[in-house]
Amino acid sequence: MKQPKQPKRPKPPTPARRQLKRALVFGATGLTGHHLTEQLLANKNYREVICVNRRPMGINHERLTEIIDDYSHLENLKIQQSINDVFCCIGTTIKKAGSKENFKEVDLELPVAIAKLAADKKAGKLLVVSSIGAKAGSGNFYLRTKGEMEKEVLRIEGPLKTIVRPSMLLGERNEKRSAESIGQWLMKPLKIFMIGKLRKYRPIQAADVARAMVAIANSQPTTQVIFESNDLQEIANGG
To answer: Taking residues 153-163, what's their average pLDDT?
Structure first.
């Protein structure tokens, strides 16, 4: 039986020269953002990790600075320190948001506002969590919104931008998402059959997404702007 052709693996990011940096994280109370914050604090390249959250994280660390803000006026956010890397892990569901309009405020308008803030702060890099299948012209409202967000973020001049598109996220959330839990239960046994072009649809641990984001942020600049879920898994596994 002829084996399906395997897609080309992404080249692992080339580590950049070590430097003490300052990270700014939005959405650190979410699944991916929480893992990201923990990994940034464990990474010796960062002298300080600043998290802007709507509610306290419940983490105490000497290099963690937490700002409680409702995100309504990010242009007025007072951050005196210089920022090297900005991470946007903002995301919700239509059910939790309550309406499509509210969903767009969180998943489109907020990341764009964060990208503008990163530009104003003259940050070196901006990494934004999107979704697999994101496409501005999609017939699916969720994927269309994510695609429009990507398009708007990439238009903003300033920091080197990276879009990460994870597939279904695996991990324990503080909040319950019934549909997501069912999806995880269904997808896990099917993972081994997702080969070739289907590899990017394999579910991925949120901790691995975070690990890949930290690796990308601490690598030398490349021409690759969008990292699909299988790219993230490769990087998280060490290339």
So the answer is: 96
The answer, yes or no, to whether residue 115 has pLDDT greater than 90, is yes
For strand 169-170 and strand 204-205, is the pairing parallel, antiparallel, or unpaired? parallel
Q: For residues 48 and 40, give the distance between their C-alpha atoms in angstroms, rounded to a whole number.
A: 9
Closest to 83 measured CA to CA, from 154, 20, 128, 35:
20
Cβ burial, residue 113 (10 Å; 0-12/13-18/19+):
buried
Give me the amino acid identity at 211: R
- Cβ atoms of 84 and 160 closer than 8 Å: no
Query: For every residue of 166-181, which 3-state class applies, written as one string?
Result: CCCEECCCCCCCHHHH
Lowest-confidence segment of 16-20, 137-141, 188-192 by average pLDDT? 188-192
Alpha-carbon span 125 to 24, nearest angstrom: 10
Q: Are 238 and 176 in contact (CB under 8 A)?
A: no
Mean pLDDT of 61-90: 94
Q: Would you list the domain boundaries of the chain?
A: 21-234
> Domain spanning 21-234: which CATH class is it, in words?
alpha beta
pLDDT digits (tens, 9 = 90+) for 45-74: 999 999 999 999 989 999 999 999 999 999
- Is the whole model's pTM more than 0.70, yes or no? yes
Looking at this protein, which amino acid is placed at residue 176?
Answer: K
Is the distance from CB of 167 to CB of 130 less than 8 angstroms? no
Coil, helix or strand at residue 138: coil
Rounded to the nearest 10 degrees, the angle between the axes of helix 31-42 and helix 206-217 is: 50
